[in-house]
Design goal:
The structure is a homodimer. Chain A is mainly α. The first copy, chain A, has ten helices and no strands. The radius of gyration of chain A is 20 Å and the shape is elongated. Chain B binds a DNA duplex through α3.
Amino acid sequence: MDTKKKILEVALTLFSEKGYGNVYVGQIAEGVGIKAPSLYKHYKSKQAIFDAILEEMRNRYDKEAAHLNITGNDFFVDSKVYNNISEDELVKMGIGLFSFFLHDEYECKFRKMLTIEQFSDKELAELFSRQYFNEPIKYQTGLLQLLIMQGNMKNEDANVMALQFFAPIYLLMTVCDREPQREAEALQMLEKHIRQFSRMYKE
Amino acid sequence: MDTKKKILEVALTLFSEKGYGNVYVGQIAEGVGIKAPSLYKHYKSKQAIFDAILEEMRNRYDKEAAHLNITGNDFFVDSKVYNNISEDELVKMGIGLFSFFLHDEYECKFRKMLTIEQFSDKELAELFSRQYFNEPIKYQTGLLQLLIMQGNMKNEDANVMALQFFAPIYLLMTVCDREPQREAEALQMLEKHIRQFSRMYKE
DNA sequence: CCTCTTAGCTAATTAAAATTAGCCTTATTA
DNA sequence: TAATAAGGCTAATTTTAATTAGCTAAGAGG
């Protein structure tokens, strides 16, 4: 019973490291601790395993999007939190965001797999953009709009501010995805970025 | 003679769309207009084709890095250009940078292929980081330092400013790489970003 | 305790792709 | 002008990976 889940887990790990086309069912089986033919007791093909992973991604996304989370939309909950937020708090929040993106095991594998497969499937491309552009930008924009309305930030285009806040976080994350040893360096830059952002835009 | 080059060209195109593991030598041959076995008159294996592409990338990089170009280091040439640069000029430059990255055929395929293969090879990871992080940031940092020294920009950390200038360009580019129909939207945001950046940091 | 299902295995089988063999034409050149 | 090399082809061959067949042990439930 557990095997069925374990297969998805192992497969996602492998797909996120090498990409679908470079992973063999034998490797998945080995990771699970069974032989390749036994996989077929659980999924009817390699493609079906991939599809199940995607399906799981969509479910998870829908579930989490409904709740509060990084890409969520709870402007109102958060607005209280960020009302009169200090620079240090902003730093803590940015680093939290970054660290979650970078270290959450599922998030991380999911992102790497999408990175690899994004050009081969339109749906994956859209999923990627939604998760790492549309939603974060939408969310941050809402937040910044509130901060502006509350007089905490200069009255500039909140959408552009969101882009300027988020893009460096994203870029540093991609660096760490491919060169994990650069995390310390990235964190340093990240902190400087947020402090400078805060200083420049604070009213 | 020409065939040998054409093979690399076709292979790079295919690798950048599907990734090495999902491309078959027959497809490469078809693109070139010959049959698969004829490929072996030019390269001893599929892997050798991939390696030749990498080799070409390195050569090109070394050649271009020596000269002036996007990721180059000619602070001094450019400093004259940017001395007392207007906001409009900055916009034109940013959009030029973005458009080059996005539309230059070789640049574009190269980037997509690296995007797909970056996690499977340390060398590729480093190449990617160098090309799309280290070098642009280093270059922009130098430029901004000059602008600061010349009193055109506020005296903030130039390295962070470079990150804040470049990261949105990069992020928007990745969006267009996977969803080319969003280019107009991206260009709009890009222009707003640069104008706002310019306004915030200008002395 | 019998039987049926589940989930594993080994040993095929199939399918697909990479690569090799070996032939043919053209073009160069000694 | 004969020899040779380059570069193409078709027809194998090899390799590799996915999938199927069919056996078996374990355990659930009547």
